[in-house]
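Exercise 3.2. Students should predict the tertiary structure of the chain below and write it as structure tokens, then compare their answer with the key that follows.

Predict this chain's 3D structure.
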Amino acid sequence: MSWILLVVAGLLETAWAVGLKYTEGFTRVIPSVLTGAAIVASMLLLGIATRDLPIGTAYAVWVGIGALGAAVLGIVLFREPASLARLFFLGLLLVAIVGLKFTSGK
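Answer key:
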């Protein structure tokens, strides 16, 4: 169950990271409220997941999911560059996240 909570926390981190773009510097109310809610929910779920998971692994996976998700959504939603090198390194990030899961001992 802790891994599921951690993945959801990572997805919420992606949501708030991308949400920051829509807040326009926290000048738009609804995107700002939704982004703030995603931040709180993400941290809460991360905290709960760390009851059972090592903090180093949990934090690295949480950040990795958020970074990977934000980068992919940046490419899809904001037409950020999708060079072969960038996609390769995003793939390495995914491999690292999966690798941490399988080597965590939990």
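Discussion points: Helices lie at 2-23, 29-49, 55-78, 84-102. Residues 55-78 form the longest helix (24 residues).
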